[in-house]
Amino acid sequence: MLDRESREAAQIDAALERLARDEYGICRSCGTVIGLGRLKALPFAQCCTACQAGVEARERGVGAEWRSRSIRPEPRAPRPAFAVSRGGPWRET
Ligand SMILES: [Zn+2]
Predict the structure, then answer these.
(1) In-domain check, residue 73
(2) How many whole angstroms separate alpha carbon 5 and alpha carbon 3?
(3) Structural domain harbouring 36
(4) How many A from CA of 40 to the centre of ligand 1?
(5) What distance in angstroms lies between residue 76's CA and the mean position of ligand 1's atoms?
(6) In the prediction, which pLDDT does 31 show?
(7) Does residue 21 sit within a domain?
(8) How confident is the model at residue 17, as a pLDDT?
(9) CB neighbours (10 Å) of residue 43?
(10) Radius of gyration from C-alpha coordinates of the chain
(11) By C-alpha distance, which of 50, 56, 48, 44 is closest to 27?
């Protein structure tokens, strides 16, 4: 019930902690400076836009990625030629 609020509180805590360590506004994932525009829109953002987009894409694409990565049968070696040439209509008796 308090999920959203407690999550926000945790984010605020984390932001304050990062502020104290001088890490506020630094992407947690790649270490780049998070843009001011992004921080204004999302003061507790922990990742830059690029990393956040990557995370969201991964979360969304989990199923699709799974399917595309499903095991494909290995291409078989070509049939041995003798199976075709042997016993054709011109079989000698
Ligand atoms: Zn980043």
Answers:
(1) no
(2) 6
(3) 3-67
(4) 17
(5) 44
(6) 94
(7) yes
(8) 92
(9) 12
(10) 29
(11) 48
- Token readout for 82 is 């003798």
Check which CATH number belongs to the domain holding 20 and give it. 1.20.120.910
Residue with tokens 């994932």: 29
SS3 33: strand
* Contact of 29 with 47, CB cutoff 8 Å: yes
When divided into structural domains, the chain yields a total of 1
Structure tokens at 34: 């998070």
In a domain, 83, yes or no: no
- The C-alpha atoms of residue 93 and residue 84 are separated, in whole angstroms, by 18
Using the mean position of ligand 1's atoms as its centre, give its distance from the Cα of residue 89 in Å. Answer: 69
Distance 39 CA to ligand 1 centre (A): 13
Q: pLDDT tens digits, the chain, 93 residues: what are they?
A: 578 899 989 988 998 999 899 999 999 999 999 999 999 998 889 899 999 999 889 888 865 555 555 666 677 777 766 655 666 666 666
Contact 34, 48 (CB under 8 A): yes
